[in-house]
Design goal:
single chain, alpha/beta, five-stranded mixed β-sheet
Length: 308
């Protein structure tokens, strides 16, 4: 794990900023500090599903590594059960937010407003140069984001990184649309954590349409961001890690019209939240086990009404 993490940091920067999830650089940064961390604190994770961001993975990992090293150095060795370093991710206000907090010594008030200045440090000379936070702020601002700090002496410190999430915008491709409409074949994406279900549905629909299958909402987000254009998404409502509801809301937050192109599938066992979601949803949904005739009818009618 450490070797893979170092390899991630050693990649040569290029001008491309691929769409990634922040979980990757966050995890390999955690791997690099884990040896020191375990003697000082317990690690807590609260990593919620978040939209994709268009950033260089290595540079973002450098930011997270600096924040984690600061958190580790803020806590003396010897009492790991009494101290905590917590990393969390969430989406809010059009941004992906990553927080690194610790229960360490905190930052003195006269230094709190200067921690992002070059060569300003709360560490001893053998632990830091005072450049880590300055570099981190430069990287985050280059990404169009911001980095903030809150701290109380004797209580701990929270660093908060906010990065605008990528927007999945449907490109206008009149040439493609005309070509697809002539053949009648559409691009359909099936999202279901049960691979057998996805494979069966692909077999049923592939005679009339071009069908792809993925087994998670995260894979679906990556596929939708990479192209080519998808005309219709068949999505399972209840999936681990990121549910169909969270997938739908992520698409809404990313301001793309794919949210309007989803037909949901569900086994019919609803929580109160899921029942409320389906009741207020304009998108159609199908109950499992899915009736093949009903599925084909839904697909045909939806395509004729929305795609042409």
């Amino acid at each position: 794990e450490v070797v893979r993490s170092i390899q991630s940091f050693s990649r040569v920067d290029n001008e491309e900023s691929p769409l990634i999830r922040v979980d990757g650089p966050l995890e390999f940064s955690i791997n690099l500090v884990m040896t020191d961390l375990r003697y000082r604190a317990r690690l807590e994770r609260d990593l919620r599903p978040t939209p994709l961001v268009a950033v260089n993975e290595s540079r973002l990992g450098q930011v997270f590594l600096n924040l984690l090293i600061n958190a580790v150095h803020a806590i003396p060795e010897g009492n790991p059960d009494e101290n905590t370093i917590r990393v969390s991710t969430r989406a809010a206000g059009g941004c992906v937010i990553v927080e690194v907090s610790d229960t360490g010594n905190g930052i003195q008030p006269h230094l709190l407003g200067r921690v992002f200045e070059p060569f300003v440090t709360t560490k001893s000379h053998d632990e830091g140069t005072g450049l880590g936070l300055s570099i981190s702020r430069s990287i985050v601002e280059e990404l169009g984001g911001r980095i903030e700090v809150e701290s109380e002496v004797g209580v701990g410190t929270v660093f908060r990184v906010s990065i605008p999430h990528a927007r999945l915008e449907r490109p206008d491709r009149p040439e493609q649309k005309a070509s697809v409409n002539q053949t009648g074949r559409k691009q359909i994406l099936i999202v279901d954590d049960e691979i057998q279900v996805g494979t069966s549905l692909r077999r049923v629909l592939s005679g009339e349409h071009d069908v792809e299958v993925v087994v998670s909402a995260h894979e679906a987000l990556l596929r939708l961001s990479e192209g080519p254009q998808i005309d219709l998404v068949l999505c399972d409502l209840m999936m681990p890690v990121m549910s169909g509801i969270e997938f739908y809301r992520t698409l809404i937050e990313m301001n793309c019209d794919y949210a309007d192109r989803i037909i949901f599938m569900t086994g019919g066992v609803f929580t109160q939240q899921e029942q409320k979601f389906l009741n207020t949803l304009e998108n159609p949904w199908l109950a499992k086990p899915i009736d093949i005739g009903e599925l084909k009818s839904y697909v045909t009618n939806w395509v004729s009404e929305h795609v042409g």
